[in-house]
Amino acid sequence: MIFCAFERMIAMRYLRSRRRDGFVSIIAGFSLIGIALGVATLIIVMSVMNGFRAELLNRILGLNGHIGISAALDRGLEDFDKIAKNIQNIPGVSRVTPIIEGQAMATVRGEAAGVLIRGIRAKDLKKHKILVDNIENGSVNNLYKGGAAIVGTRFAARYGLQIGDAFSLVAPTGRQTAFGTLPRIKRFFVAATFEIGMFEYDSRFIYIPLNTARKFFNYQPGTVSTLEVMLNDPDEIAAKSLAIKKVSDIQLRLLDWQNANSGFFNAIQVERNVMFLILTLIIVVAAFNIISGLIMLVKDKGRDIAILRTIGATKGAVTRVFLLSGMSVGLIGTATGSVIGLVFALNIETIRQLIEKLSGSEIFAAEIYFLSKLPAKVDAGEVAMVIALALGLSFLATIYPAWRAAKLDPVMALRYE
């Protein structure tokens, strides 16, 4: 072993509190607590940020697709089944879904709100796993009854809608008549409700049959607004976009998920990096406490060090004694912080609900944070990096005090004893 039994015994004795040098042990205790808090906080924050990104990515891409294809000009996409078939034959493309998408205004009992309407065929809807698997009430099969619609649970809850209840949708463009432009209004009933877990989708998205959406938004027969392309690997959008343009006979406009949501995901990444740097300062401060505590310990134990040197202890042995003293604080603090951080991160939603129940206040509003539950995704690589960072800083903090202890001259230390 690097440290012999004699060195381990001396190091542990120096860390134990005594009446004369108890203040040094108190500093070591605060250093341990600081490192534990820093490691735990880093693991928790990084896990929550990873969870946010993963949950948002899964929901945004699961509902919207990886690449959106529309006509180059502002008109419907014609002959879309042929284009979809050509794109479906590209290796790496898992699904192509024709939809008609547009904004409208929903009115219920005199209240109104902006919503996003999506028209989709029955066979395509059943392939939409993230939607079908999250139906709360009703059935997707009811969508293709006359005037049926599937709405989010938050939309239904906001207006007190149940299965079978009616609401109206107002199209963005009116109908030209001899008396001027009149709004186009169509009445729908709730066929089913879904809950994706993302506030924006659960409160604004409404699904209706494709033919109904075509008439509602006044599209030409046999056209759609968009083809949604799902890939096996979302990171291959550049290569697949190029392949889509090659197999297409007409000019298309492509919008991939990275460009559509670049500002959103870049903001999460920047926030994640900044939080990592800020919270690392907790560990740095704790490492400085280790330095100050060891320097005081070296000064306090000058006579003991001199005696050790005179009875045969080498400079290396003295160095290892103080390295072990400082590293013990860092190691115990890191281990404690890792356990606390992992337990907290793996049970963060339960802890959030408990805190909200005890405090009586909402600390995670879905309207602000987009998600209805607080997510956390523990990354083993990042946890290892945090542990390595804490241990590395703890080791660096012990080098100078240990060097000072080894350089102590026994003669000078014992001159006035």
Model description:
This protein has 417 residues and is of the alpha+beta class. The protein has 2 domains: 5-58 and 264-414, no CATH class; 73-250, no CATH class. Helix content is 56%, strand content 19%. It contains 17 helices and 14 strands. The protein has helices spanning 5-15, 22-64, 80-88, 122-125, 129-132, 153-159, 199-204, 210-216, 237-247, 257-260, 262-300, 302-310, 315-346, 348-359, 366-369, 380-407, 410-414, and strands at residues 67-71, 77-78, 93-108, 111-120, 135-138, 148-152, 166-170, 175-177, 180-182, 185-194, 205-209, 223-224, 226-231, 252-256. A 6-stranded mixed beta barrel has the order 3-4-11-6-10-7. Strands 2-12 form a two-stranded antiparallel ribbon. Strand 8 (175-177) and strand 9 (180-182) form a beta hairpin. Helix 2 runs antiparallel to helix 16 (380-407). The longest helix is centred in the N-terminal third of the chain and has 43 residues, at 22-64. It is elongated. The chain starts with a helix and ends with a helix. The model has no long low-confidence stretch (mean pLDDT 80).
